[in-house]
């Protein structure tokens, strides 16, 4: 299944979840937020939210700025 | 005690620091401590698995409240999504709303900013919008429920100081929410002037983080904000065209 994680094309197994997408980048869970197709996915829903073909996943954190 | 109050939250420091531009987290840490700041902005970006350390660790260690911004957004829609992501990631409904019009000037887009502010207020955010030095827009944003207004002194990172002190005074006169001078500060006298004009606080980053000695400049800014605030509270003498003797003239 083809998805995009932070702008990079990825091939993930069917049934992969938002939690799996986050885990592919980091083991951390705090200080991170996820949007799938421009909708915020609450942390409590990461495990239960399955990815679908062509999903655009953004995994963000705070950096120096402003 | 002369506290800054934003949305019911009290701060004893009137200097809000940004974290952008510091050469390292160590330098940033030293500058933050020297500034005495209690509220500090961060930006939201794609997670970089190779990034060494996190600005959040620094803020947590120093017990500084985090103020996420929406820097890099060009539309209200982008800013609203970024604010929601920041709320989820950082657990705060506070947001420095920043919607820029173009990359060259980084000037705020008033139409998109107002649109985003209305949507974020309706969604329960504590909204601190970055705006031009426009008294009418400042008033409209306050009416829309913003917790503060943050007019610029000059474009971001320019260090040009306060280009239109008169407009900043007009914004201060009309506002009943805190006015935070944001962007354009170059050196300590700019920060002092902002406070003398009646601003409730100053937000700056580049002037400290890109100074040759950030920690020393952070101390200078701290002193300038305190001095400017005291001068404002003290009430300055009126300006006169001619001298007024301070010693008795008669012998």
From TrEMBL, chain A:
Report the superkingdom from the record.
Bacteria
Positions in coiled-coil regions: none
Q: Name one Pfam family in it.
A: ThiS
Signal peptide (residue range):
none
Task: Tell me the NCBIfam families matching this sequence.
Answer: thiS
Question: What is the protein name given in its UniProt record?
Answer: Thiamine biosynthesis protein ThiS
The organism is Sinosporangium siamense
UniProtKB/TrEMBL annotation, chain B:
- Annotated compartments: Cytoplasm
Q: Which residues bind 1-deoxy-D-xylulose 5-phosphate?
A: 157, 183-184, 205-206
**Does the keyword Lyase belong to this entry?**
no
Please give the SUPFAM superfamilies that the UniProt record associates with this protein: ThiG-like (SSF110399)
What EC number(s) are associated with this protein in UniProt? 2.8.1.10
Q: Which CDD domains match?
A: ThiG
All copies of domain Thiazole synthase ThiG, residue ranges: 6-248
Q: What is this protein's name?
A: Thiazole synthase
- Protein's organism: Sinosporangium siamense
Q: Which gene encodes it?
A: thiG
């Amino acid at each position: 299944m083809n998805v995009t994680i932070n702008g990079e094309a990825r091939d993930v197994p069917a049934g992969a979840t938002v939690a799996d997408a986050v885990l592919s980048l980091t083991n951390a869970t705090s200080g991170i937020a996820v949007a799938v197709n421009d909708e915020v996915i609450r942390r409590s829903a990461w495990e239960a939210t399955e990815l679908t073909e062509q999903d655009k996943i953004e995994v963000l954190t705070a950096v120096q700025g402003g | 005690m002369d506290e800054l109050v934003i949305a019911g939250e009290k701060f004893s420091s009137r200097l809000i620091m940004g974290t952008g531009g510091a050469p390292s987290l160590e330098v940033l840490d030293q500058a933050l401590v020297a500034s005495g700041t209690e509220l500090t902005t961060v930006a939201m970006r794609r997670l970089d698995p190779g990034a060494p350390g996190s600005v959040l660790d620094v803020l947590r260690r120093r017990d500084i409240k985090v103020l996420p911004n929406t820097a890099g957004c060009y539309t209200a829609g982008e800013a609203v999504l970024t604010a929601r992501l920041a709320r989820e990631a950082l657990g705060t409904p506070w947001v420095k709303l920043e919607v820029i019009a173009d990359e060259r000037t980084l000037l705020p887009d008033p139409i998109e900013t107002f649109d985003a502010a209305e949507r974020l207020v309706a969604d329960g955010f504590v909204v601190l919008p970055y705006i031009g030095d426009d008294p009418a827009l400042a008033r409209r944003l306050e009416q829309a429920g913003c917790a503060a207004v943050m007019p610029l002194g000059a474009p971001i990172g320019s260090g040009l100081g306060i280009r239109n002190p008169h407009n900043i005074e007009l914004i201060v006169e009309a506002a009943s929410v805190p006015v935070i001078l944001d962007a354009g500060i170059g050196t300590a006298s700019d920060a002092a002037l902002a406070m003398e004009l009646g601003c409730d606080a100053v937000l700056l980053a580049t002037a400290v983080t890109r100074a040759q000695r950030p920690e020393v400049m952070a101390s200078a800014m701290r002193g300038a904000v305190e001095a400017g605030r005291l001068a404002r509270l003290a009430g300055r003498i009126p300006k006169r065209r001619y001298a007024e003797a301070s010693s008795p003239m008669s012998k």
